[in-house]
Amino acid sequence: MRGATALEAVPLKQQDGKDITLRDVVINALTQDDPRAQVNGDERFKRFQLALRVHSATETIDLSAEDVALIKRLVMNSPFFNIVAIGRAVDALEGRGVVH
Questions:
Q1: Range(s) of the domain holding residue 93
Q2: Band (84; pLDDT cuts 50, 70, 90)
């Protein structure tokens, strides 16, 4: 994701050339440990369960406002995503509240 810098409406690409989806960003945000943050076991397990739900979804899923807020916070504070990926993910989450 670090290589994606275009602001045009083109898909962001992974290093292997595959498109990066909102699903990819959400799962990465939920499953990455940020060494700057102290996260307790309950929070880690909640994030794991939500990541599994997103990963196993075969259709668009509805997320609670609490889940969307958690995902947005993780995406926006992640040192692993560039500004374009963060902006697109947050726009999608705020616009629909769903992951597809």
A1: 22-99
A2: confident
Residue 72 CA to residue 89 CA, distance in Å, equals 8
Considering the domain boundaries, does residue 14 fall inside one? Answer: no
Residue 94 lies in a domain: yes
Among candidates 98, 80, 74, 92, which has minimal Cα distance to 11?
92
- State how far the Cα of 93 lies from the Cα of 49, in Å rounded to an integer: 19
Neighbours of 60 (CB within 10 A): 9
Q: Which residues, 6+ apart, have CB-to-CB distance to 55 below 8 Å? A: 23, 27
Give the tens place of pLDDT for each residue, 41-64.
Answer: 899 999 999 999 999 999 888 899
Residue 77 lies inside a defined structural domain of this protein: yes
